[in-house]
């Protein structure tokens, strides 16, 4: 996919990938084509895997707060088991942008920015209690 973008007359000046692994592959294709990151094309990934900061060109990434997400999911599961939840519940977690050298605005060392708006962050966990099923009739 990245090779196709690189062959276009009007190349993008930035690429936002749906996860860091895809961003790393796209960055490799860009470097293989003799282009510079971030001067020619900037890159942002989404999930902030641990090794993204150790790449030859450290990757700017959106951190999904997977630890918080897991803790919230576990607590909701426990609440469901204990029947403390009787209606759908949505928990929203604000993502964090970790800025590194793969983007033009990167500081010499990585910096983080937490989303200010909590109205519609991209990550939400929704747990809906299961409806009681009627027993199946055996044949």
What this model shows, in words?
This protein starts with a helix and ends in a 12-residue tail after the last strand. The chain has 139 residues and is of the alpha/beta class. It is 25% helix and 22% strand. The strands form two sheets. A five-stranded mixed β-sheet has the order 1-2-3-5-6, covered by helices on one side. The protein has a two-stranded antiparallel sheet with strand order 4-7. The longest helix is centred in the middle third of the chain and has 16 residues. It has three helices and seven strands, in the order H-E-H-E-E-H-E-E-E-E. It has a single domain, classed as Rossmann fold (3-Layer(aba) Sandwich). It is elongated.
In short:
With 139 residues, the chain is of the alpha/beta class.
Describe the biggest sheet? 5 strands, mixed
Mean pLDDT: 81
Shape: elongated
Q: What structural category do the secondary elements indicate?
A: alpha/beta
Termini distance? 52 Å
Order of helices and strands: HEHEEHEEEE
Major sheet: arrangement of strands: 1-2-3-5-6
Beta-strand percentage range: 15-25%
Rg for CA atoms: 21 Å
Number of strands: 7
According to CATH, the fold-level topology is Rossmann fold
Count the helices. How many?
A: 3
Helix content percent band: 25-40%
The CATH architecture: 3-Layer(aba) Sandwich
Given as residue ranges, the uncertain stretches (5+ residues, pLDDT < 50) are 116-122
CATH class: Alpha Beta
How many distinct folded domains?
1
